[in-house]
Write a structure and sequence with these properties.
The protein is of the alpha/beta class. The protein has helices spanning about 5-20, 50-65, 90-100, 120-130, 145-155, 170-175, 185-205, 215-235, 240-255, 260-270, 280-290, 305-310, 320-325, 335-345, 385-405, 430-435; strands at about 40-45, 70-75, 110-115, 135-140, 160, 260, 295, 310-315, 350-355, 360-370, 375-380, 410-415, 420, 425-430. Strands 9-10-11-12-14-13 form a 6-stranded mixed β-sheet. Strands 2-3-4-1-5 form a 5-stranded parallel β-sheet, with helices on both faces. A 3-stranded antiparallel β-sheet has the order 6-8-7.
């Protein structure tokens, strides 16, 4: 990009930022870490609120008497910055300090959105992190791309957090069920929780669709998915066989929370007269996970061979998106509930796998928390009405827990609650989402 044009464009962008008020949105409960001489990296799917999480941090700084001119926000998806190169990035701080030369000796905060759009951006960010009086925040929609480049270039000089759609607690606050979530659950608050979780189960957590009609919501969510597919997969990875990619995505959306092998997807594509190798399909799935549209859960096993030969399970980044994208008319509520449980485990920082017992039964989740060094086993069963099925699920849970030595055993249901032999707690989804399983 031509130097004078770029500098003028940056001044225009900066002026817009300083003239506009920083938006106030529903407060996210995500903790934004800040480590001196390190970059804070916010990862997540498009439209999940990464930018508003950065805005939230800016408002926190304003509340602590940091003047706005000590902050800078640049969104590298702005079409005025198309064609920008890593060499051009040096003008980002240069133009800023030309506008505020007195800030060179004051701690300043640089918020850089979708930085991965600039090839070799990590060289610039490392230089910024090493610059005195600078704190850097990054956001991006590519997990592997950012993580790989941050790890390579930053060498331990970054802190990464994942941003998901609204949690149930954030949903409650956004829709004014409570100003603060009560710790003690009365009969009145229980009714509110039960009412709210029905809406949460239908709407999902994408921030911009919370207050629109179902028809508009579906259209917006479909647009989000299309943007991810085209910008984060097709364009980024130069996918030529777009038809095969779309059929692969269709299979995942129609089979959330179920074991789904690459072979099965390949057979489905073949039945639709679409050709793609298993290696290509595997790449598609990896790229979709890289863009946070879906999440892959593998079999829990010490054997690499077993992990490779057993199919993975796939969960979508938001159940509202599943509802908007599924072709099947009848929605099975069980997999959607399981998808909701998975997302909550990830929000809480758990690493998740699934378990196959010695008799071939499946347990939905074994969750390990690396910070707390503890495990929990969870089974998801929509209700207890089919007693034979429910007892089979609980037996599998107990067998797996005994074999693995896991004491924390939970069955998440829609609205049933019980305490069963073998230290198994049956917990309704609203309580699980509030992390009140022990209450």
């Amino acid at each position: 990009m031509e130097k004078t044009l770029l500098k003028n464009t940056l001044r225009e962008l900066y002026s817009d930022f300083y003239e506009d008020q920083i938006p106030e949105m529903t407060r996210r409960l995500t903790t934004i870490p800040e480590v001196p001489r390190s970059a804070t990296v916010v990862l997540g799917m498009r439209r999940t609120g990464k930018t508003f999480l950065l805005y939230q941090r800016m408002n926190e700084l304003l509340a602590s008497d940091v003047s706005k001119d000590r902050m800078l926000h640049v969104n590298f998806e702005d079409d005025r910055l198309l064609g920008m190169t890593v060499e051009d990035l040096r003008y980002v701080p240069d133009v800023y300090y030309q506008m505020f030369p007195e800030n060179r000796s004051r701690l300043c905060y640089f918020f850089l959105d979708e930085i991965q759009n600039i090839e070799h951006w990590e060289v610039f960010v490392r230089r910024m992190v090493d610059t005195p009086h600078v704190q850097v925040y990054l956001s991006g929609s590519s997990a592997k791309l950012l993580s790989r480049e941050v790890a390579t270039a930053m060498r331990g000089r970054s802190v990464e957090i994942e941003n998901f759609p609204l949690s149930f607690e954030e949903f409650l606050i956004h829709h004014n069920y409570f100003k603060t979530i009560p710790r003690n659950i009365s009969s009145a608050s229980r009714s509110k929780f039960q009412n709210a979780v029905e809406k949460f189960f239908a709407i999902g957590g994408m921030p911009a669709v919370q207050d629109v009609s179902p028809v508009v919501r579906a259209a917006i969510l479909q647009g989000y998915v299309n943007t991810v597919i085209y910008k984060d997969v097709i364009e980024r990875h130069e996918v030529a066989n777009t038809q095969a990619l779309k059929f692969t995505i269709q299979m995942v959306f129609n089979n959330p929370a179920r074991q789904l092998s690459v072979r099965k997807i390949a057979d489905y594509l073949k039945s639709q007269q679409v050709s793609a190798s298993r290696e290509t399909i595997s790449d598609y799935l990896d790229w979709l996970a890289d863009a946070y549209l879906l999440h892959k859960v593998s079999l829990c096993s010490d054997s690499a061979m077993k992990r490779r030969t057993n199919p993975d399970k796939y969960y979508l980044n938001d159940i509202g998106i599943v509802r908007a994208m599924r072709i099947k008319h009848a929605l099975d509520q069980g997999p959607l509930l399981e998808n909701l449980v998975y997302l909550q485990l990830r929000r809480q920082g758990f690493k998740v796998e699934y378990v196959i017992t010695s008799d071939g039964s499946e347990v939905d989740f074994i969750a390990f928390h690396p910070m707390r060094n503890d495990y929990k086993l969870l089974q998801v069963c929509f209700d207890m009405s089919d007693r034979k099925t429910f007892d089979r699920e609980v037996t599998a849970l107990r067998d797996a827990a005994d074999a693995l030595g896991v004491k924390d055993r939970c069955v998440v249901t829609w609205d049933d609650e019980d305490s069963l032999p073998g230290n198994v707690q049956v917990v309704p989804i609203w309580k699980f989402l509030l992390d009140r399983a022990a209450d």
